[in-house]
Amino acid sequence: MLDLLMNEGAQWFTGVAFVASLMFAITVLLLFVGGDGGLDGGGDVDLPDGSGDGNASFKVLSLQGVVGFGMGWGWGGLVAFRNLGWTWNVSAVAGVVVGGLFVAMLWLGFKLVYGLAGDGNVHRRDAMGLTGTVTVAIPASGSGRVRVVIRNHQREFSATSRSIRIESHSAVRVVAVRDDGMLEVEPA
Questions:
Q1: What does the alpha-carbon distance between residue 12 and residue 14 come to, in Å, rounded to a whole number?
Q2: Residue 47 to residues 43, 66, 104: CA-CA distances in angstroms?
Q3: Which uninterrupted H or E stretch holds 135?
């Protein structure tokens, strides 16, 4: 078995595959253990991990991307070299293709995960047409407060009415959002 992995040029594929697989296993183990597992060497090393700001396309050029490519190149090249009987050069090209597929899967995973993110912001203009409850009475010529539920998020906004007083705990409907950000309401 050792002859299959370590002679006639297979040692290049085997070495890269084992190192990348070991790094992947350590990454997964630390993911489940949490944090750095208490492994603090005292130094400050800043490795790219794909979690910072920037273009999502470059997130694959991180430690995970390099490890994924290494695993694909090593194992793909080893399979092509030993099982398919291809030459070392052709097997290396096959390894590049498999490594590229691993990186493409990583990129697709990042793209799908980042697509799930939302800003969670609730904008005043989203309150148009909704009903709410007055929390602070709205005088005929002034402002009060209104509680409105927008996309399952309860928010309270400053509000005014069109020349009528609206008592606290009254139901209202939002008819406009003014330029100053105040909601204009009428009794519901």
A1: 5
A2: 12, 12, 21
A3: strand 131-136
Domain that holds residue 77: 2-37+46-115
Q: Which of 115, 145, 173 is the last residue of a domain?
A: 115
Tell me which of 65, 82, 115 is where a domain ends.
Answer: 115
**Average per-residue pLDDT in the chain?**
84
pLDDT in tens, 70-107: 999 999 999 999 888 899 999 999 999 999 999 999 88
The DSSP string of 68-133 is HHHHHHHHHHHIIIIIS---HHHHHHHHHHHHHHHHHHHHHHHHHHHHT-------GGGGTT-EEE
Phi, then psi, of 84 in degrees rounded to 5: -95, -10
Question: Residue 136 carries which DSSP code?
Answer: E
Kindly state whether residues 96 and 51 are assigned to the same domain: yes
